[in-house]
Amino acid sequence: MMDTQVLKNLLPVVCELAVKAGKGILPIAAEIGQVETKADGTPLTRADRASHQVIAAGLDQIEPRFPVLSEEGDLEQVGMESWRTFWCVDPLDGTKEFVKGLDEYTVNIALIDGGRSVLGVVYVPAQDVLYYAAAGRGAWKAAGAAEPQRIAASECEQPAVAVASRSHLSDQTREFLARLGVQEMTSRGSSIKMCAVADGSADIYPRYGPTCLWDTAAGAAVAIEAGCEVIDLQGAPLSYDPAAGIRREGFVVYPAAMRELVAAAL
Questions:
Q1: Burial of 3 (0-12, 13-18, 19+ CB in 10 A)
Q2: 4-151 belongs to which homologous superfamily?
Q3: Closest Cα partner for 213 from 191, 189, 235?
Q4: Angle (CA) 38 43 46, round 5°
Q5: Which tens digit of pLDDT belongs to each residue from 121-149?
């Protein structure tokens, strides 16, 4: 288990790095330029690359040093499956929203230890909002120059408002929410959805469909410290053990008070 003092020391440094990378994205957002398509069909812009370079260089200067798994890094790294502690980075989550000119893209940096996300930072550059958390230290939200506020998930046992993917809403998601009796659903992009459950502005976020570790790692750390559970579609805690590969087939984020209700609906 990662030492809590180490996490305390790392958190402000990582927050500063995420904000630096995000601020570097903003000028590019005004003039996105050429958009490439990666092998998996997802878009890639120079903003993705620029953010990755800032984060990779910054993490390389942080002690203790850990290997880095980044969406825009070298995904053929030898020995990744045996890593116990590593950085998990999505330099620009929500590239589809970014390309459309929406303000819902994020910079995600997480620290994984023993298959768990123990530190997470999510920065929303276009809104200047920062979410951050570390194991045992709670979850926090800082908007602009305002003082950071501790956040907590809803305590309700029956979800009223769900948040779902703007780009990946499926029939399975709709059916799951119908089983729960959810009456209202909002669509958002990127890891903002996990943070919405963490700060209580939404009650549940289901995702039926594949994601990669870097898509959820930072948001999961924030959600868990805010009193949420983040589980896979079999009901087990979502694992970040790279020995199981970098893809996961789906997950649900919800306040702990909904555990029995969600288990019955899966």
A1: exposed
A2: Fructose-1,6-Bisphosphatase, subunit A, domain 1 (3.30.540.10)
A3: 191
A4: 100
A5: 999 999 999 999 999 999 999 999 999 99
